Amino acid sequence: RSVSQVPVAEGKSVQQTVELLARRLEALGADKQGTFGVDCETYHTAGAIGTQGQTGKLMYVMHNSEYPLSCFALFENGPCLVADANFDTLMVKLKGFFQNAKANKIESRGTRYQYCDFLVKLGTVTMGPSARGISVEVEYCPCVIANDCWNLLMEFMQSFMGSHTPGIPSVFGAKHDSVYSPGDTMVQYMELFNKIRKQQQVPVAGIR
User: How open is the CA angle 174-190-84, to the nearest 5 degrees?
Assistant: First the structure.
């Protein structure tokens, strides 16, 4: 699977760009197959903020509608823990150790499309009430060895993403010839969400 960000088309809004991509997919012959959602909440290690000017380590707790019984806990550059859905309750009990940065919740929601053996999820990424970006997840369903199908994935993505077709994801390089897992998809979403967060953190000039 590949998870990537598509920039907003010039002169268009996020929603208009999503509709443009959807029309391209439907023109290829892709069929709508329901909806999907991926969300991510940020936790920081309690008590570590402000210690010698350093922030605590961040943990991301994520959910994916494709895996309704699972919860994913990820550290940047660190392990991905796959737990059952009760993990959310555990995080409430661990609030003395991990504090939820509520303002940082980010999610991607949208439509699933099936085209032959490909599954495409076209999502609008939101933080709070506003749309911040566009995510595209593409899966070649018959193959579970990431590197075996990358060229095929890329060729298909070029058919509707054009020049915005992404390069090979970093998780593919780490997997080599091993089996691709749901956690690898969540790592890609975490990286995409963090990239979009950083794009929003542009200093505002002229405020006195």
Answer: 90
Domain ranges of the chain: 1-199
Closest to 20 in 3D by CA, of 207, 10, 107? 10
CB-side neighbour CA atoms (13 Å) of 38: 27
Q: What is the full per-residue pLDDT of the chain (208 aa) written as tens digits?
A: 899 999 988 888 999 999 999 999 999 999 999 999 999 999 887 665 444 545 567 889 999 999 999 999 998 777 888 999 889 888 888 877 888 887 789 999 999 999 999 999 999 999 988 899 999 999 998 888 877 788 888 999 999 998 898 888 877 776 666 778 888 899 999 999 999 988 766 544 444 3
Q: Count CB atoms within 10 A of the CB of residue 162.
A: 10
Contact assessment for residue 82 and residue 182, using Cβ atoms and an 8 Å cutoff: yes
> What's CA 78's distance to the chain center, in Å?
17
Q: How big is the chain by its Cα radius of gyration, in Å?
A: 18
Q: What angle do CA 190, 121, 145 make, to 5 degrees?
A: 70
Closest CA to 94 of 104, 79, 83: 83
CATH topology of domain 1-199: Hypothetical Protein Pfu-838710-001 (2.40.320)
